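Predict the holo structure. Ligand: 3,4-dihydroxyphenylalanine.
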Amino acid sequence: MGGNGAREDWAIVALAEIAAAPTVAALEALRVQYLGKQGRVTGELRALSGLPALERRARGAVLNEYKTDIEHALSRQREVLAQAEQTQRLEQERLDLTLPGVSPAWGTLHPITRVRRRLADVMLRLGFTLRTAPEMETEWYNFEALNMPADHPAREMHDTFYLEAPYVLRTHTSPFQIRAMRDAGGELPLRVATLGFTYRRDDDATHTPQFMQMEGLVLDRGIGLPDLKGVVLAVVRDVFGPTERIRLRPSFFPFTEPSAEVDMSCPLCLGTGCRVCHTGWIEILGSGLVHPRVLEAGGYDPGEVSGFAFGWGVERVAMLLYGLDELRPLYQNDVRFLQAFDAWDSL
Ligand code: DAH
């Protein structure tokens, strides 16, 4: 307060304006208005020189007090505004720790992976070993060794992807038979299976250029069709259910003699006949007793050893198991489709 009584109006207004300044910019404008070169306080101080000495001293003391009060008010308000600004910023940056987090999307096993694991599992439980074989194969392993010489008409049925000679992308898993026999070096019994990709120039609702097959091979002395039927029935029942029936239908494959296609009772209508199977039976795999020439190519003596082999498409198993009428969705990577199988398998 001024030494000589109440503050002058302009000084009261100055302090009130400063205390109400809403922004740093407004506050700065007030500083200039009062303390700047053209400011009110500066002007009043300048006017002191025109006063008589006694009056000048008293007036000077009052003005200095106003000046100090205004400076204090400015710095107080600067503080207040800084505080408000920080509060506002913290308010905006506030984290709600009680909000539920964004959980990562869990992957699920691909239906083909599920079927693959299931097939591998049943083969292992039946006493087979599992092995792999190259997807890039020589024509000899893919055809010749399997009793399909270059002019053999059955080669036409395999729309082959030819690579640089002598390689092809294997058109079936059957060349694994030759590799397994040669690696076994005449050892008996031989019970071996494989699961892997195969390739054909085929592309429609139920065929893709890359598909997967599972194949099994058993060799020993005195192996016959009943052994084949017993093993295939065990596999089919394990995968599709304990009440499945199968039947062997005479057929032809160059690498087996005799050859049989295996039908199973339709899992969709339980063998009564439906839109999918018509007859109650569904063809699922190719099989037969290993051809003597194939045994020879594998290093076994057909006079002493016999065996059976069978091969089937993994996608086809998946389609029958999950009731799909198209194969392509399995490879189109729509996660909504692919995730459905998690729920399915836990039923
Ligand atoms: N390799 C045949 C195919 O891809 C399937 C097959 C038939 C495999 C008979 C076999 C068999 O092992 O004995 O069409």
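The first strand starts at residue 129 and ends at 130. Residues 172, 174, 215, 253, 256, 286-288, 309-311 surround 3,4-dihydroxyphenylalanine (CB under 6 Å).
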